[in-house]
Design a protein that fits this description.
Rossmann fold; 18 strands; about 450 residues; alpha+beta
Length: about 450
């Protein structure tokens, strides 16, 4: 029986510098950063910091106006977003304290970095865990030669895979084939492992077949972004290293997301982004099409009006919603990035609802801003005032009937990965000043 997958964030506590030392470094950096401001500006330092925060807020508001306006108003909004922080820097220069503010900001970043590591849990499991398994006897791999700008050919993936005993089918872009049916035919012919060298959308189609037939699934990071491969700890720079799973692999369990009856390995998006990518003009000119459509979409003058229900939470009229197969790690401004786990049995939900410049400025607070809702759920229902809505599923544009139900299939996927692979990132802990002080000034502290 394979072990569950806990990939991202798998650095071990004993591999990091001492927690107490990091806590002391964090506090020392804050004090050292504040001293120059206090010594050279006194009480004015509070005013200067408030001015900096105000400049960032005005800049965020300007960006919101730029996204929701057209023509001259958009140009003026962009100018405001750029000039507001510049004006703050000029003011700092005029009073001769720009250097002190820059030192303060640098030391604040150092303090935050040290605090995150000091407060990180020590009991995170090893990213390399998994059940040792014998090599597959009849592996079957599907390769898309166009994915990732031609990585299949550039890294010689077909040749290397065949040398390891795999049966390989390289897709012909001129003659599209049903990927799922191709995988099912391979199983009927005796394949005991299914693998994909391609994008996340192709991976999801084959992963669904593998899960339904309870055979191992293998990812080769030959796509453009390779989000799923990245969260598995696979090498995105050299996809040929993923082939090590055929000879020296371990097996882990991972979840699969479902949007309607369609499987996704990364996420399903609703709202503004999903509507933009549905436009026929998007492929030819992404930037111009996005800027043309966003004002109406963000101000609810076009597009469907959504209602999202996740557990006891209801998000009314969000402009954008992202439902992910396991939640993205916290700690970065929008809560995006990589996933700490792929086996939590929970969907991640991020909803964005910004109806004013004030709310746009509040987005600087990240997950604490009023315009962003971040939660987890086992099921998410997206309702709309229309019978069908656009949905982006692992980067592919679909149109689905409403209501759209998103679910998760815990541990549905057996994933074959190389024994030796990269550690994935750990979820950053929330900052707890009290606990940080206890770590800094005591020899032992309760975690």
């Amino acid at each position: 029986m394979s072990r569950s997958l806990n990939v991202p964030g798998a650095g071990r506590g004993h591999g990091r510098p001492g927690r107490h030392g990091l806590a002391r470094l964090s506090i020392a950096a804050l004090v050292a950063g504040a001293l120059p401001l206090l010594l050279f500006a006194g009480l004015r330092s509070i005013t200067l910091l408030a001015l900096g925060i105000a400049g960032l807020a005005v800049s965020a508001a300007g960006l919101w106006w730029a996204l929701t306006r057209r023509g001259v108003l958009r140009v003026l909004a962009v100018a405001l977003a750029v000039l507001a922080p510049l004006a703050v820097l000029v003011r700092y220069m005029m009073v001769g304290l720009l250097w002190a503010v820059l030192v303060f900001l640098a030391l604040v970043f150092l303090a935050l970095w040290a605090a995150r590591f000091a407060l990180a849990p020590e009991d995170r499991p090893d990213a390399r865990e998994g059940s040792p398994v014998p090599p597959p006897r009849h592996p079957f791999l599907i390769m898309n030669p166009r994915s990732g700008g031609g990585k299949v050919g550039r890294f010689g993936l077909e040749r290397k895979a065949r040398a390891l005993g795999a049966d390989v089918v390289v897709l012909d872009p001129a003659h599209p084939r049903d990927i799922a049916e191709l995988a099912r035919e391979a199983l009927a012919c005796g394949a005991d492992l299914l693998g994909v060298a391609g994008g996340d959308g192709t991976q999801a189609l084959v992963a669904d077949v593998a899960a339904r037939h309870d055979v191992p699934f293998m990812v080769i990071s030959a796509g453009t972004r390779n989000h799923f491969a990245l969260d598995l700890g696979l090498d995105r720079d050299d996809p040929s290293r993923c082939l090590d799973a055929l000879t020296d692999g371990v097996e882990v369990r991972g979840d699969l997301g479902l949007v309607g009856d369609r499987v996704f390995v990364n996420n399903a998006s609703f709202g503004a982004y999903a509507a933009v990518v549905q436009s026929p003009a998007y492929r030819a000119d992404k930037a111009r099409t996005t800027l043309r459509m966003l004002p109406d979409l963000l101000t609810h003058q076009s597009g469907a009006r959504l209602t999202v229900r996740a557990g006891d939470t209801v998000i009314s009229s969000p402009q954008a919603v992202l439902v992910s197969n396991n939640p993205y790690q916290g700690g970065d401004p929008a809560g995006l990035g990589r996933r700490e786990r792929l086996d939590s049995g929970r969907l991640g939900v991020l909803g964005v609802k910004v109806d004013s410049a004030v709310q746009a400025a509040g987005m600087l607070r990240g997950r604490h801003g009023s315009g962003l809702t971040a939660l987890t759920a086992e099921e998410v229902v997206v309702e709309a005032d229309r019978p069908e809505i656009p949905v982006g599923v692992d980067g592919e544009a679909l149109v689905l009937p409403t209501p759209v139900r998103c679910r998760i299939r815990p541990g549905a996927l057996r994933i074959r990965v190389p024994r030796h692979r990269r550690e994935a990132p750990w979820a950053r802990p929330s900052l707890d000043p009290g606990r940080l002080l206890r770590l800094a000034f005591t020899r032992t502290a309760r975690s």
